């Protein structure tokens, strides 16, 4: 397989045993989830890092909960535009208590309960975030709910109301219906009268999410034919987070005045590590469109990418407005996050693999204070485990790899690993 | 010039004098504006045609007013997809009194005052239209207002509220700001709080329409730089009815989450007749877009074409809903059509040239009962007039050509002319 290489080569260098004591950070250090190099699950490590200092305009947050997104998997594989240099602390969202504020920050004070959309650095015990990306929590919202809602509902809100402009009596096709964004889209669409929601999800999820969608379809059967049977004229909106093959299918399912919206490219991810083949395939199989074709067919094509909007395009005031609306909807009882599971930092690789395999229903969250799952191995039985692993299929081997990652040495002072 | 050919060659065949009496239709005939062949203004003729019969599901309308649209100019030049065979009756909208209803028509009765979006055939004393394209008028709306509002406001409404999803505090760039659709967009946007409207129009119109727009720009100066000065981050929505060069400019003026909307291709029209060169140039200079680019840039591209939507894509129920909303807004005093001028059937060529030259401010309408302008010539002084015309510039010659067209013979039984 194209994606089995990079992770394995450096295994000997990476995995070393250490004392339990070393896992706990000293008073001037904190634990953080680090990406040591782009690639497989082994590149994800728990390390001790110096405590961050709070700069001008920044807020220092004692992190109580984090959210995991498919983007984190893509970051790990290096499948994003202008990635930072490794090693760096992973994670794009967290919630917690304010422990310090930098010069110029006037509307947030120490002790405030907040959530934040961070440009990396969220998966740590402490993080310093520009105040423009920090949002006070409404009364009664716990940190886990906040971290699980923030990014997914911001994305879903913008897709449903702004880019998608979904209105009464319209039909919407949603990919990855069981994921965090899919569930958020479903809840937000319920605030619009008579929206028909078609969700695409793996068959095994259908039972768990059947109340969220008007109809569920299986991505692995010919969903295009299914949609055409239900809506011979097509659907009003297609929300596509996959790209590649599904982009063309989605566009071709649009009815007149229909809108195809691309908000993710998860089809770039195939195996555990980056596959240039799948990347290139996804890219090239999508036809370019002349605006004249859209004029002839009465169609729209949109792209939406929150990371770009927030950090490169400076739309933080707009996003803040959306967060306020979402928190209001939560207070009014219109939305409620669906949390799949919560994990310790040490178990991030296993959680990531679950997300990669689309086995989650709702949001995957992290809790820095959580005890990791019991270890399955020590250095002594490493060789035996490796043999066992070789007998397993590539897909099944991942939870074993995840426990490997838990035993990472704190090598924050060491040079980045080779992978 | 590339566009001076087709119309002139057949001049001798087309222009013949006739008696005043022949201009009036017999009881079994009606007067209609006919396109005898695709090309210049001379292909537009007033002819006597047999009265239309009302078919199943149709409504027979005694036409009291008609609207002219830029699409009529494009139809005349053959610059549209799947044009009908010539000769045919021109015109896409009219208003009048119901004179008969076909089998199966239950919600409209003889004597009703209605407006209609017709697939051609509107510019005649009588027209038979499928009931699905016929809309009852609200009390107090006169035929001229109805015919002048219908298409422009339907287009504008869909652009502003559905495809454009224009919201409070957004900025909108509108091409052809002085035209019927431009004026309708301006009025509809006033129902949304704090919309900044940038209108592009010829300098000489600026005074007349300055109250409709926040700011007016001149298409002939570098409007891109002007917009960038006013909105360094770009605008939220670009409404482009030109295509060609302006498509790229428009797209590049979008801010994050901005939407470029193509709803017309009037740049295909250069001179009086079709120019394949300008057509091809417009087509090719517009870059094709990969959805991935939109994803990277947080942009949307949309196309909207009412004719296609209504007659090929069967969205008549949707359009009826829009008409009802527009008529309600008119009743509530929120909108009021801007009529540039009203013309007799015989003066259609002159009116068309005015529209072509973008000299109108608001809607150009026709009144079948109106007396034509006094004729300037007879067969006797034809040669002299031709000489005079040769001394004029191409642009100035048009009103003369228009009066030529008034003297067309009724040759409804004759074969189509050669151009």
Q: Give the CA-CA distance, first to last residue of chain A.
A: 18 Å
Indicate the proportion of strand residues of chain A.
15-25%
Largest interface: A-B, 42 and 42 residues
Number of strands of chain A: 16
The shape of chain A is: globular
Total helical segments of chain A: 16
Contiguous low-pLDDT stretches of chain A (5 residues minimum) are 1-22, 379-419
Helix content of chain A: 25-40%
SSE class of chain A: alpha/beta
Q: What assembly state would you assign to the polypeptide chains in this entry? A: homodimer
Q: Could you tell me the mean pLDDT of chain A?
A: 85
User: What does the main sheet of chain A amount to?
Assistant: 7 strands, mixed
What is the alpha-carbon Rg of chain A in Å? 22 Å
Give a nutshell description of this structure.
Chain A is of the alpha/beta class and 419 residues long.
What secondary-structure arrangement, pairings included, does this model have?
2 copies of one chain form a homodimer.
Chain A: H1 6-9, H2 11-14, H3 20-23, E1 29-35, E2 44-50, E3 58-68, H4 70-76, E4 88-89, E5 93-101, E6 113-117, E7 126-130, E8 134-136, H5 143-163, E9 171-174, H6 180-189, E10 196-200, H7 206-209, E11 215-217, H8 223-230, E12 235-240, H9 245-252, E13 254-262, H10 276-284, H11 291-297, E14 300-303, H12 306-312, H13 316-331, E15 339-343, H14 348-356, E16 363-366, H15 382-391, H16 398-406
Parallel strand pairs in A: 9-10, 9-12, 10-11, 12-13, 13-14, 15-16
Antiparallel strand pairs in A: 1-2, 1-4, 3-5, 3-7, 3-16, 5-6, 6-8
């Amino acid at each position: 397989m194209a994606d089995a290489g990079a992770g394995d080569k450096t295994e000997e260098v990476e995995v070393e045993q250490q004392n339990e004591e070393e896992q706990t950070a000293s008073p001037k250090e904190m634990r953080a989830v680090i990406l040591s190099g782009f690639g497989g699950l082994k590149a994800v490590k728990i390390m001790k890092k110096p405590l961050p200092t709070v700069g001008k305009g920044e807020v220092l947050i004692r992190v109580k909960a984090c959210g995991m997104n498919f983007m984190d998997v893509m970051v790990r594989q290096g499948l994003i535009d202008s990635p930072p240099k490794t090693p760096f602390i992973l994670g794009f969202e967290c919630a917690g208590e304010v422990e310090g504020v930098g010069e110029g920050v006037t509307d947030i004070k120490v002790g405030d309960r907040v959530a934040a959309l961070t440009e990396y650095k969220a998966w740590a015990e402490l993080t310093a975030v520009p105040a423009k990306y920090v949002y006070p929590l409404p009364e009664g919202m716990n940190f886990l709910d906040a971290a699980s809602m923030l990014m997914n509902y911001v994305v879903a809100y913008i897709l449903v109301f702004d880019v998608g402009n979904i209105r009464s009596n319209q039909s919407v096709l949603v990919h990855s219906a069981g994921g965090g964004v899919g569930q958020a889209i479903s809840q937000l669409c319920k605030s619009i009268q008579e929206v028909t929601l078609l969700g695409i999800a793996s068959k095994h999820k259908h039972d768990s999410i059947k109340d969220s969608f008007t109809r569920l379809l299986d991505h692995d059967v010919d969903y295009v034919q299914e949609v055409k049977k239900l809506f011979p004229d097509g659907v009003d909106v297609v929300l596509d987070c996959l790209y590649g093959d599904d982009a063309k299918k989605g566009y071709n399912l649009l009815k007149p005045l229909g809108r195809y919206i691309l908000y993710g490219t998860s089809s770039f991810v195939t195996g555990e590590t980056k596959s240039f083949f799948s990347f290139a395939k996804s890219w090239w199989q999508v036809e370019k469109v002349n605006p004249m074709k859209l004029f002839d067919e009465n169609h729209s094509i949109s792209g939406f990418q929150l990371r770009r909007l927030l950090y490169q395009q400076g739309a933080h005031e707009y996003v803040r407005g959306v967060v306020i609306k979402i928190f209001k909807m939560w207070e009014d009882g219109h939305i409620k996050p669906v949390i799949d599971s919560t994990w310790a930092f040490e178990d991030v690789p296993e959680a990531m693999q679950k997300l990669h395999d689309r086995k989650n229903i709702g949001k995957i969250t992290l809790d820095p204070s959580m005890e990791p799952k019991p270890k399955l191995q020590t250095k002594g039985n490493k060789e035996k485990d490796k043999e066992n692993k070789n007998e397993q299929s590539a897909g099944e081997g991942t939870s074993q790899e995840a426990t490997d990652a838990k035993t990472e040495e704190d090598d924050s002072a060491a040079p980045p690993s080779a992978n």
